[in-house]
Design brief:
This protein is an alpha/beta fold. It is built from 15 helices and eight strands. The chain binds adenosine-5'-diphosphate and magnesium ion (MG).
Amino acid sequence: MSDQAAKLRQMALNSSILKSPIKQGSKSRVITVTSGKGGVGKTNFTVNLALALAGLGQKILVIDADFGMSNVEVVLGCSSRYSVLNLLEDGLNITDVVTVGPRGIKFMAGGSGMYQLANLSDAHLQHIVSQISLFDNWADIVLVDTGAGLSRNVLNFVMAADEVIIITTPEPTAITDAYAMMKAYGVQNGVAPLRLVVNRIVDLDEGQMVVDKLISVSQRFLDVSVNNLGYVYEDRNLVKAVKKQVPLLVSFPEAISSRCIENIAQRLLYGETTQRPRGMRGFFRKFLEFIG
Ligand SMILES: Nc1ncnc2c1ncn2[C@@H]1O[C@H](COP(=O)(O)OP(=O)(O)O)[C@@H](O)[C@H]1O
Ligand SMILES: [Mg+2]
């Protein structure tokens, strides 16, 4: 680990974030949304899930962790003056760089078109997470939208989360890559249950087939628990919403894909939860453990 990383780590360990008493009931639930393949619908899902959860009275912070290729702002239709870059380069605090979007959700943009953001050092990642931790007392749920694939940036956020949602579509390439993500999670000794969302299904049988396939191969070959969180239909309204830059749930609340995402939000809130949220402090500890 570099000197800078060691210093930042020490600063973080000494900081009040980790020392302040854990307030029962005030911990954020940290959910990372990821996929193997790109373009499967992570960002649209995350943004609309955030809106659905906010509609159910939850305080939501969305972190765009697809650093350098940030899309949350675009899908949300809400431009942000600052991004993670200001956190890293200008010494601003997270409270300065978050923007308030529809339904009171807060989000931090991931920066766009900046090469250095695509390959952040561990020290930078730690700094970002220690800043996000400051929201533990505010956010009920922190949703982290990642990039695709098995890069270190992505895996760090996957490994540290309380819960991980893996999105796939019914395409064989997307399924294969979702499996690769599950495998990587198992290899790194991930323990949180992985929750599958199959996006762009044409009928329920198709969704069920994808889920059955992924659950059965994971049971045979991997030491991870995988369960089904739900499906989202292929829906032209979603494409229209992206073009209008008004999120699906706002522009087409009655659309079938909106209903699907609302169902998933309900399931996340009221369905059985297997994990007790460890809050942002827990997330941060896991993050440090994984970076090692
Ligand atoms: N349920 C869906 N129905 C129709 N098109 C979809 C759906 N989900 C995603 N898309 C299409 O896929 C594109 C990529 O989605 P996005 O959320 O940006 O993916 P990712 O974040 O995984 O790269 C969207 O702009 C839209 O055109
Ligand atoms: Mg995306």
